[in-house]
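re: the backbone from monday

yeah here it is again, tokenized this time
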């Protein structure tokens, strides 16, 4: 299940939408100079530029106070040229991630991490959903993976991947199990999965023996090793699984595409071109 071609199509669609809207704006906020964060942010700006989304790269000093950080978000909240705001997490340890997220206007929260958006998802009315789980759902639809009634197992329960993908799968009528670091006998769960989504950040945590024959496996993990970028799933799993997303080139390209797509969605919500979703049935 490669993500590149679908991500390309979504980005082309975004570019069309941006034209139709007469331009939109995305702001990233980075505190300090963590090199990995700088690379992620640069990629988002490059992708935004390709879709003609105007992007602002706000870099704040490592020693900024919580109040000054909130004030910077406040300025972006009221800036009419800005439709989406991404605060690069995690912040340096002395700052509170949750407080920083709360300072973002939920309608500009294109990472879908504000409690309003997390709550909307929990209640079954996804509004702005984190990009990675959204990208996974698009991939599953593209490859026509049956979700209704399927047994889905999610390994990982982070706020940006594990929990939101579990909710989206539940809303698609899968029967969902969430595993985490306290789960005992992980393979008892994974072997039962028609769909296995793995987001633990532990290379090779899933071996071929842990996967049911014919299952669809989505590998979200990305770890930098001496052998290059690797996922959480042993590549040998492709001999057992019906579908397996590659790393790199699977979920990664979808995430970037969905950040752009979320920015278009945020612009439409803010301009009243889209209604805030009511409960889905
Ligand atoms: P995270 O916040 O570190 O969460 C990891 C999760 O894995 C936690 O819920 C943890 O459980 C669980 N876990 C740890 N050890 C486990 C074990 N032995 N068995 C079962 N579960 C275990 O990570 P994240 O932000 O969700 O990211 C996960 C991975 O996906 C990382 O490699 C990250 O780089 C990658 N990622 C990729 C993309 C992309 O676009 N491709 C996007 C986002 C993230 P506890 O909650 O109990 O600690």
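seq for it, each position gets an aa:
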């Amino acid at each position: 299940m490669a993500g590149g071609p679908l991500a390309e199509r979504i980005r082309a669609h975004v570019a069309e939408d941006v034209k139709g809207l007469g331009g939109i704006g995305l702001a990233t906020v980075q505190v300090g100079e963590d090199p990995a964060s700088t690379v992620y942010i640069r990629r988002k700006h490059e992708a935004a530029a390709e879709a003609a989304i105007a992007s602002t790269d706000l870099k704040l000093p490592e020693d900024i106070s919580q109040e000054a950080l909130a004030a910077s978000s406040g300025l972006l909240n009221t800036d009419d040229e800005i439709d989406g705001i991404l605060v690069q997490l995690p912040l340096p340890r002395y700052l509170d991630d949750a407080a920083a997220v709360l300072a973002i206007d939920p309608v500009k929260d294109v990472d879908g991490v504000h409690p309003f958006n997390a709550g909307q998802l929990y209640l079954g009315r996804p509004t702005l959903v984190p990009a990675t789980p959204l990208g996974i759902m698009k991939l599953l639809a593209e490859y026509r993976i049956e979700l209704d009634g399927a047994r889905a197992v999610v390994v990982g329960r982070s706020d940006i991947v594990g929990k939101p993908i579990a909710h989206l799968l539940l809303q698609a009528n899968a029967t969902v199990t969430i595993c985490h670091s306290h789960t005992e006998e992980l393979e008892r769960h994974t072997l039962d999965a028609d769909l296995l989504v793995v987001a633990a950040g532990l290379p090779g945590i899933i071996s071929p023996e842990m996967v049911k024959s014919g299952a669809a496996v989505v590998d979200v993990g990305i770890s930098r090793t001496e052998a290059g970028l690797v996922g959480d799933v042993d590549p040998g799993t492709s001999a057992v699984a019906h579908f397996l997303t590659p790393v790199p080139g699977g979920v990664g390209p979808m995430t970037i595409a969905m950040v752009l797509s979320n920015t278009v969605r945020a612009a439409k919500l803010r301009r009243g071109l889209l209604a805030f979703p009511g409960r889905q049935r």
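The longest strand covers residues 25-31. The pocket of NAP is lined by residues 132, 155-158, 160-162, 179-183, 186, 199-202, 205, 220-223, 251-252, 255 (CB under 6 Å).
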